[in-house]
Design brief:
By secondary structure, the chain is mainly alpha-helical. It is built from 16 helices and 2 strands.
Length: about 375
């Protein structure tokens, strides 16, 4: 056995072991992301299984022997599991419905087709005529061409792209408040796996077209080393954040508290309308609370629960509306957009640009061109 193979065995085995250990821990972890942790554990288990299968091949098992007939790759399931992990992580109420099981169809097809192709070895006598038409061409497509690998990476790219869309347009939650900063690690996971899938498909196609599907330089060893590293890293990410929650339950308000917060919200709106407090660039939550003769936490709670806005967003929305009103005045033609923004309460160009982009989704110049 070559020294490179010893190194490979260690790397793949360590990755698989870590994946299994972290998978077991996550599968037993209860809490807000109980369901999501099950999907993450499943990803780690399947990655670990694949690494162990590849390790067995280094020892000579799984190459046209008994284990070859038994062991399967399950290459087409990773994307589906990642997709459901993301969906369930951003929404703790998510549960698999009957229509969701369609996403597991690719791996079912892979299992059936793999068993069918492997069964052809019982009929193969070295001649094409010993196999049926479907058996021969199926075997060629499966074993002589990178079909299974191209489909595997294509599925990963599709599901990582879909997951990115979910993370960019998070679903509305009725019973929870989302903590978006707690989702950054999920975004990193999705991006890394997507990059891995793209590199995977490029490597396999280079190997096929330039090396006649026989080079480990572009496909074999680097791919499984990469998979081992991802398995190890993904396990650590999931384990270290097993107690973190990306959402927190919204407390139901009593009738008395609801009425109190509604009254505060009305007072906030009246004060903003009558005194235009938002025009003060130094306005803070403390200043507003003193004006209202209310405690800051009650003002914050009123904004969040009644007006459903954060203090900064609420004030910036009023300032942007003020900018729009000022732009409608013909006299505004002699002023720059930034000077008008200052008059509306913004204290810097950067804060104005950020607020407009966040609230309207468009650049500040859009305010002037669409007045």
């Amino acid at each position: 056995m070559k020294s490179i193979e010893y190194i490979l065995i260690v790397l793949l085995s360590v990755g698989a072991f870590q994946g299994i250990v972290y998978g077991i821990i996550l599968s037993q972890k209860r809490g807000m992301h109980f369901y999501a942790n099950r999907f993450l554990a499943a990803i780690l288990f399947f990655f670990s299984y694949r690494l162990l299968v590849e390790t067995s091949k280094i020892f000579g098992y799984g190459r046209y022997d008994f284990w070859y007939q038994v062991l399967l790759e399950y290459n087409w399931i990773y994307g589906t599991l990642l997709f459901f992990f993301v969906k369930s992580y951003v929404n703790p109420d998510f549960r698999l419905k009957r229509k969701d099981y369609i996403h597991f169809l690719p791996v079912l097809i892979e299992i059936i087709w793999s068993f069918f192709i492997k069964s052809q070895n019982f009929y193969w006598d070295g001649t094409r005529e010993s196999l049926s038409w479907l058996g021969y061409y199926g075997y060629m497509a499966w074993m002589r061409y990178p079909t299974m690998y191209v489909i595997s990476s294509a599925l990963l790219i599709y599901y990582t792209s879909t997951s990115q869309k979910i993370l960019s347009h998070l679903p509305e939650l009725t019973n929870y408040e989302r903590i978006t900063r707690k989702l950054q690690w999920i975004k990193r996971v999705v991006i890394i796996i997507k990059i891995f899938a793209i590199a995977y498909i490029i490597g396999i196609l280079v190997d096929y077209f330039f090396f006649n599907f026989a080079s480990n330089l572009f496909y074999g060893h680097p791919v499984f080393i990469g998979m081992a590293i991802i398995t190890y890293w993904l396990g650590i990410e999931g384990f270290s954040r097993r107690k973190d929650a990306a959402v927190k339950p919204i407390q139901q308000l009593s009738t008395k508290e609801q009425k109190q917060l509604e009254e505060i919200a009305i007072s906030i709106q009246q004060l903003m309308k009558e005194e235009s407090l938002y025009k003060d660039p130094e306005l803070t939550l403390g200043t507003l609370s003193r004006k209202l003769h209310q405690k800051p936490y009650l003002v914050t709670k009123s904004l969040n629960n009644i007006l459903q806005k954060k203090f900064t967003d609420y004030i910036n929305e009023l300032r942007i509306e003020e900018v729009k009103r000022m732009l409608e005045d013909p006299k505004s033609e002699k002023y720059t957009l930034l000077s008008i923004a200052y008059d509306a309460g913004f204290n810097s160009k950067a804060s104005f640009n950020r607020a407009v982009k966040k609230i309207t989704g468009k650049p500040p110049t859009h305010l002037k061109t669409n007045k």
